[in-house]
Amino acid sequence: MFTKKNLLLISLLSVAFLASAQKVVEPANTDPEWSKPYPSFQIVGNLYYVGTYELASYLIVTHQGNILINTGLAASAPMIKANIEALGFKLADIRILLNTQAHYDHMGAMAAIKKSTGAKMMVDEGDSGAVADGGRSDYSKDGSVSLFAPVKVDQILHNGDTIKLGGMQLVMLHHPGHTKGSCSFLFDVKDAKRSYRVLIANMPTIVTDKRFSDIPAYPNIAKDYAYTLNAMKNLSFDIWLASHASQFELESKHKPGSGYNPSAFMDREAYDAELKDLQEQYFKKVNGN
């Protein structure tokens, strides 16, 4: 439901979107694995992987249209389309666009896909400004240029909001720190054998070399990281995935052509180990090491 605050914010974001329609400069020398092709496949039930070797994109298929989460780099748009079609689905059937963070490596092709499909862009409030201005307002950047094509925000999301489509219900979890509106998604899927609780996690990696106290554009960054790390430790799920394929060890868990195997992604131990490592990095950061 749209509140007066949300409608006002969306109106302001539309102005920001139009004002930011300027030169987009995606950083050069990106990791080649970010754009390396990877065959799409069925993860579990109606959830599919349609991203690249390293940048994860997820397709959730329903009888009322589909949901796409993340898009990778700008040049990855044709690859995502091809991956979706290889599964027997159509890009045009995407109705909702979501992201786990407003960085160019996950938002690069979002504007092109939105234009092609007419899908609604739904964004965590903390990242809504960065989505609308192409990342210029990201606290870790200098704001001189857009790093990805700005995307008009159609709906603002808050912690615990539910995205509904065709019987699917995705709960958005506000997990700030990496960006002001980084978020994860928790939802249930089914196959012929059972139901699975799935977490698409935005792992709270630290992206700045500066001390937290030296980031006036994000005064609550230390508190947000602490909140997110604690919140993520307490989540319950069967399967977990992430924004980057290497974070959940996609290459070792699924070999192209290996077939349907949801159990490969039921790996709580790896999730806890990843969070423990991030917690240690956070402690070093706040202690000035």
Automatic annotation (TrEMBL):
One of its GO terms (molecular function) is hydrolase activity. Residues 1-21 form the signal peptide. Keywords: Hydrolase, Metal-binding, Signal, Zinc. It holds the Pfam family Lactamase_B. Residues 54-244 form the Metallo-beta-lactamase domain. Its cofactor is Zn(2+). Coiled coil: none annotated. It comes from the Bacteria. This is Metallo-beta-lactamase class B.
